[in-house]
Design a protein that fits this description.
Layout lengths: L2 H30 L3 E2 L5 E2 L5 H8 L1 H34 L5 H8 L7 H12 L4 H8 L13 H23 L5 H9 L4 H29 L3 H7 L6 H11 L3 H29 L1
Antiparallel strand pairs: 1-2
Helix pairs in contact: 1-12, 2-12, 3-7, 3-9, 5-10, 7-9, 7-10, 8-9, 9-12, 11-12
């Protein structure tokens, strides 16, 4: 058997599995989005573009799009800022505690998302730890509103994205070469200049990959905006849930889900094009 034929046969099970898990459900969503909703709310099998016209005619959809993109950009950037120093430390340290620190860094991934959100509600609430500390040291006389708004959602989403950012950065730091930093130090460059001129440029591919991964996760996040937002934060994921569960408008929910998927694919395509251009 030729090596090319053997390679094709080896990929067949994976292709079938991917088709069953991803392609078929996407086809179901696409087909459902062309159905119509009757006056009673019942779904009527059809082949109509009415749902899509309704989707793009509603200005609220574009507001949801902007909200989702803005939240994803801010939370992904914040996760990058907080995760970068820790990831760089984990990559460079030779301490015997490296494994313990790495385990603690990704420990939030082992905790259910709903449990983490209720923990943030207890910490950021009006009578939570943060407000108690602020009032205790006299910085505020009234509780600062940190939950059921965009601030709380951003904090909770940033925390949930940090383990993924750390893993992506540590995996992508393989291009860092300590000899280049040592050469810069031997030429008299201070630590901050070595970081800006050597370390940071070499780590930019890892930064871009980690940021994009967290951006995609943030765009599809539902639990954090729903619970920490308290029904006051509206993004694409929460609207899809409301349309499918509360309003039971499955055609419109399917169309909005596909619309969100296309947005993510466009961002991935833009990243791929930029990567090829810089290569």
């Amino acid at each position: 058997m030729k090596s090319g034929t053997r390679l094709v046969l080896l990929t067949v099970p994976g292709v079938i599995l991917l088709a069953a898990i991803y392609v078929w459900p996407m086809y179901g969503l696409g087909r459902m989005s062309f159905n119509e909703t009757g006056p009673t709310g019942a779904m009527i099998p059809a082949l109509s573009s009415k749902t899509w016209r309704e989707l793009f005619a509603d200005p609220f959809i574009f507001e949801l799009t902007w909200n989702s993109i803005q939240l994803s950009v801010v939370s992904s950037t914040a996760a990058l800022i907080f995760a970068y120093p820790l990831a760089l430390f984990l990559f460079r340290t030779q301490s015997r505690w490296r494994g313990v620190i790495a385990a603690l860094a990704i420990a939030p991934m082992l905790v259910n998302g709903v449990v983490r959100i209720f923990g943030w509600l207890a910490i950021l609430g009006d009578r939570g730890l943060v407000n108690a500390a602020l009032q205790g040291i006299g910085l505020t006389s009234q509780p600062v509103r940190l939950v059921y708004n965009w601030t709380g959602v951003t904090i909770g989403l940033t925390e949930s994205l940090m383990p993924y950012m750390i893993l992506a950065l540590v995996a992508g730091f393989g291009r860092l070469d300590r000899s280049l930093e040592e050469a810069a130090a031997s030429l008299g460059a201070p630590p901050w200049r070595r970081f800006l001129r050597v370390t940071l440029p070499l780590s930019l591919p890892a930064v871009a990959l980690g940021w994009l991964l967290c951006f995609v996760l943030a765009m599809s996040a539902y639990i954090t905006p729903k619970l920490l937002g308290g029904g006051r934060v509206f993004v694409l994921a929460t609207e899809i849930y409301e349309l499918s569960i509360t309003s039971v408008n499955w055609p419109l929910a399917s169309a909005l889900a596909l619309y969100t998927l296309v947005l993510l694919l466009l961002f991935l395509a833009a990243y791929s094009a930029m990567s090829r251009r810089q290569a």
